[in-house]
Design goal:
By secondary structure, the chain is α+β, with helices and mostly antiparallel strands. It has two helices and two strands, in the order αββα. It has one domain (2-49). The longest helix is centred in the C-terminal third of the chain and has 21 residues, at 29-49.
């Protein structure tokens, strides 16, 4: 089940309709997780350097 979710496109909940909608141009959930991990890693390196 988890691997299936990783390959699906990024989606967000529309607060007006309470339905999940695909976000065009955001890629897959796996790509989004990779981007977040990179941001967190860079932030940690920055904090440790200062």
């Amino acid at each position: 089940m988890g691997n299936d979710q990783l390959n699906k496109p990024v989606s967000r909940v529309n607060l007006e309709t309470a339905k999940s909608e695909v976000v065009p141009g955001e890629g897959t959930n796996a790509e989004a997780i990779t981007q977040i991990a990179k941001i967190l890693s860079d932030e940690r390196k920055f904090r440790l350097a200062n």
